[in-house]
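Researcher: Next sequence.
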Amino acid sequence: MTEEKILDKKITIMLVDDDRFLLDMYSIKFKSSGFDIETISGSADALTKLRAGAKPDVILLDIIMPNMDGLELLKTIRDEKLAETSVVIMLTNQPDEMEKAQALGADGYIVKAVNIPSEVVNKVIEIYKSKKAK
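Model: Next structure:
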């Protein structure tokens, strides 16, 4: 089932992760599910795009990345009020960081290791719909 049948509009996703394999895998899965997705391989590049005015519907952040981790990026996004209408979801293998991410303003948290890509897509839709319904 594609996201067009679930959501009112085609949503755009910015996926930030330093693992090229995961970026490619999730890009294929989200595109095949009808999403527009941009993959970015680090926090600095993501910040550059967001500061330039990018406003994706969903931002998916890994936590473990070089230079600036996903939690620091999340804090910067919230502190600088970047992409304020975006739903920010942590997509990571760090389940012990969930409370910290929520305290920094994450809208959702998905653990990669326990969810196959199609489940990740479904969870993103679920989190997006619940945040936009408020």
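Model: The longest strand covers residues 87-92. The chain has one domain: 3-132.
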